[in-house]
Amino acid sequence: MVLGILTSIAACPAIIGTTEAVRSGQKQNAREKHRSRKANLSVSCSDPSRKARDIHGGSVVLKDKKLYVTTVNPKSKFPEDFENDADRIQQYGHIFAGYFFPYPDSKWGRRGEGYVSTIADDPPQLNWIYVDKDTYEVKYGLRVETEGHLVGPWNVTPIDRRLTFDGWEGFTVVEEGEGVWALYFDVDDDGLEEKIPADQRIMEVELTRKELRMAKGDPIM
């Protein structure tokens, strides 16, 4: 009897350890569920320039194979100078709605995954998000269009879920026209010194995933 009690006591740490490991795994899985949910990208910009008002608090949109930042929501009520909502979307693009997805033949492990976004609502279509290897512009396209470019790994910071690429946050915006801000990733961490003219305005930004609002009847991922 005494031996049985001693054996049980000795086994307790192992049992507790196994239980904690299972619970930890369950919590980890719960935390990772957000990765498969569609999310918009909200933009923060702490640049002291007045130009920061063009993008701070705005969203990422897709247009003409590139990603842009705007404070105008393509789905909001359109002004009188647009005849219909289709004209507004044509002007400002399709609002980003993306999630993480394994990129074929990638070997990133826990560093991250590929990243996809819808490019249209009707019919629904998905494209890969990638960084152009030559210009460092953030773009979207079919698998064949991403080949040879920088496709990942994409990930998020542990707490705030700010977007990262290749393990860090190097997102910037470049003004390509009055109030037109294209999204770039500063791969070399040099302010895009070799990629854009010295007189072109550039600002650092942070991108935070904001999950789409769940409607009644939506499955809980």
UniProtKB/TrEMBL annotation:
Residues 1-21 form the signal peptide. Residues 23-52 are annotated as: Disordered. Keywords: Signal. This is Uncharacterized protein.
